[in-house]
Amino acid sequence: MMTDTLISKPSMPSAVEAPVERSRDVEPSTALGRSLDFAQDGRGGEAREGGVSDAPPAALAHADIAALFDLPFMDLLYRAQQVHRAHHDANRVQLSTLLSIKTGGCAENCGYCSQSASFETGLKASKLMDHDAVVASARAAKAAGSERFCMGAAWRSPKERDMPALTAMVAEVKALGLETCMTLGMLDRSQAERLAGAGLDYYNHNLDSGPEFYGEVVTTRTYGDRLDTLENVRASGMAVCCGGILGMGESRADRVDFLHALATLPKHPESVPLNALVPIAGTPIGDRMIAGGEARIDDIEFVRTVAVARILMPTSSVRLSAGRESMSQACQALCFLAGANSIFTGDRLLTTENAGGDADGALFAALGLMPMSAGA
Ligand code: SAM
Ligand code: DTB
Ligand code: SF4
Fold it and tell me: CB pairs under 8 A, 24+ apart, for 132-136?
């Protein structure tokens, strides 16, 4: 039997080592028993003797993850809910607000993205937003009940000349009493340290897919580039927000590969955003999905992916991110049942529409959900 070696590596694989080993067809390892065990007993990873673990289990094969996906839907959801309840309040959902602080004109060619300069999507590019406008927006987000304010920029990586403005934004948003998050593209060690020093709590940097499918997503950077930034973020002491997109035309095996990559990082990301592709006309992936009549990932498969993510990463926040706008209340309810416990609020994500305040108010009322920040 082949064994899966990635997680036994002492440190993050370098750009040269990535993409990680391919062992999609391995037999289920003993970790299969463990995956199912920890799903059943509600404890995760290596925390079998007591505490909660955010580290990957000692062995996790692709086949272990595929076996979770293959469970009957009801069994999968039951197990995910058990894990979820062991580590989280099942009736509370964290609210975050997104702001695009620098829109469009991006040098990367991510095939799903409205903001890449490589595609004609009709989006107007703009410069880095003014400091006071960002702070005003954060203040409004806080007043609307948000706990975390996430600032996104369409950059391959921040320029040195932008760093003072970015650190000043972080410091003032943090001073409002909000958790702070940024997503600015690749960071070197020094940039990560300066952002952390200014008070940045989270850095969002998605793997987006498994390593094998990655070449279909973007060609201007490698999977290893993403891993290098994640390593820099981790080393700076910031919490890691890392997830990806479902419904880009990837196979079930690619989804297994993607969750394997996340769950075998040296430490699980504290936050795992799962985006359903928002198909953008003019982008290669958006156009392909629209032309093939598959503009949305199947709801059940999306919910399955949320459930497997919850089981594999018991203590992480699993964030139901882009794509909620076109999801029914019932589908979102199943995602919460599967272990999602964080959403983006407000009418807008970065460049696309979001479900928004009224729809979310109705959803929370229908499900008896409470924002995490609200008193008990
Ligand atoms: N430029 C930075 C980067 O790529 O790291 C940050 C911004 S980028 C827009 C953040 C994430 O949003 C992407 O990694 C992707 O997962 C998600 N995203 C972007 N466009 C999307 C779309 N059309 N549908 C679903 N998710 C999307
Ligand atoms: C993430 O994974 N999803 C958010 C956040 N991280 C920055 C962004 C979603 C963007 C959806 C497409 C858009 O609005 O442009
Ligand atoms: Fe640029 Fe980020 Fe969009 Fe990729 S996802 S094109 S890096 S803004």
Answer: 134/99, 134/101, 134/169, 134/173, 135/169, 135/172, 135/173, 135/176
Minimum CA distance residue for ligand 1 atom 23: 278
Which residues 6+ apart lie within 8 Å of 79 measured at CB?
36, 39, 40, 68, 71, 307, 311
Beta-bridge mates of residue 246: 276
| 3-51 tens-digit pLDDT | 322 222 223 333 222 333 333 433 444 444 444 444 433 333 333 333 4
Predicted confidence band at 53 (pLDDT cuts at 50, 70, 90)? Answer: low
Domain residues of the chain, as ranges?
3-46+53-371
User: What atom in ligand 3 is closest to the CA of residue 113?
Assistant: 3
Asked if 276 contacts 322 with a C-beta cutoff of 8 angstroms, the reply is yes
- Residue 118's alpha-carbon distances to 12, 115, 301, 317, 359, in angstroms, are 31, 9, 31, 33, 34
108 lines ligand 3 (CB under 6 A): yes
Q: How far is CA 328 from the centre of its chain?
A: 21
- Catalytic residue chosen out of the listed positions 24, 43, 79, 106: 106
pLDDT digits (tens, 9 = 90+) for 152-188: 999 999 999 999 999 999 999 999 999 999 999 999 9
Q: 3-46+53-371 in CATH: which number?
A: 3.20.20.70
User: Of these residues, 110, 242, 331, 335, which one is catalytic?
Assistant: 110
Residue-level pLDDT at 32? 40
Annotated catalytic residue 331: no
Specify the pTM. Answer: 0.88
Residue 241 a catalytic site member: yes
